[in-house]
Amino acid sequence: MKYIYSGFFIIICQFVLGQNEYIDIIQPRLSFVHNVKRASDSVNFVVLNKTDTLYPKYKTDVDLSYLNASNYSTENIIGRYKILAFQFTTAKSKKIYELKQWNTPIIVFMDDNLPKEVIKKFKTFYSQIKGIPNLSISFTNNLENSNYFIKTVSKEINGYDKDFEFYSEEDRLNSPLTGGTYFLQTDKNNKLFAGILSIHIQGKNEFAILKQLKQLFFMSLGSFAQEYLSENSDLTNKYYANSGVISTSDLEMLKIHYGTIYDRPINGTIFNDILKLSNPQ
After folding, report:
1. Closest-CA residue to 189 (of 100, 117, 78)
2. Structural domains of the chain, with CATH
3. CB-facing half-sphere around the CA of 84: CA atoms within 13 A
4. Would you say 42 and 16 are in contact if contact means Cβ atoms under 8 Å apart?
5. Model-level pTM?
6. 10-residue block means of pLDDT along the chain (281 residues)?
C-alpha cells in the first residue's frame, strides 16, 4: 500500500504544479486532508483503502499586490529592495544571496547593561512597526521568553567580512558592523527563528549606541545589505541621522519583504520570475 501512495503522490505533485503559474515557481509544501471540503484539489487524490482517501491541500490564494510599485511612495522601490535583499546576485552568480524571513514572532530581550534611555528609545522606535503582514516584534523583560537577545560584550567586534574594503576611514567608522554584529538561526528554508545581536559599547555615547542598535536590528529583520539610501533610512551605508521616526521607505521595504512567507528559498532569479507574475505585460 505504501508504494501506491508514493506513486499517486508523484502524479498529484505533477498535476498540482501545472495548474498555477505561481506554484510553478514556488513549489508548495503539500499536506493532505481527509475532508474534501477543505482540499485545494478535489479531482486528484490518493486512495489508501476503501475508507481512507487523501486530498492535497496547498496555497492557491497568493496576492502579489505587495510587489506592485504603484502601491509605494517611489517608483524604484522594488529595484532598491532587490539590491538590499539579493545584492545584485542571481541563480548564476558565483556567490548567491537568498531572501531570509522571520516566520515566528520576534520577542526581544535587551541587556540590562545597555543605558536605560537607549533601551527606552529603541523600544519606542521599533514599536512603530505595526500592520506589516507576517512580521511581529515585541519586547520582554524575561530572557527565557525571548528568541532575540540584544547583548553587550567587552571584546572589540568587527562584524563585517575581513576582506571587505571601505572607501574611507569615515565610512568604516560609520558602519554599524564596526563594533557590532548579529547572528541569526535559520532552517533549511531560510526561515529565521532566533537571533543574537552583540554590541561593544565602551567609549560610545548613548546617541552612538542607539544609532548602531537601530541599524543592526533592522538589517537582521531580513539579513538586509546596506545601500546608498537617504540619511533617514536604517539601511543607509552613509551617515545615518538616527531619527526617532521609521522612514516611509524602510516600512515599505518590510511590506515587500513580508508580503508573503515563501515556501522555498528565494534567490534573485526566482524573485524576478515572481515579479513578472505581479506585473503582467
Report:
1. 100
2. 2-57 (no CATH), 65-257 (3.40.390.10)
3. 29
4. no
5. 0.81
6. 43 42 66 49 50 58 87 93 95 94 97 98 96 96 97 85 67 84 94 97 96 97 92 92 94 97 93 86 54
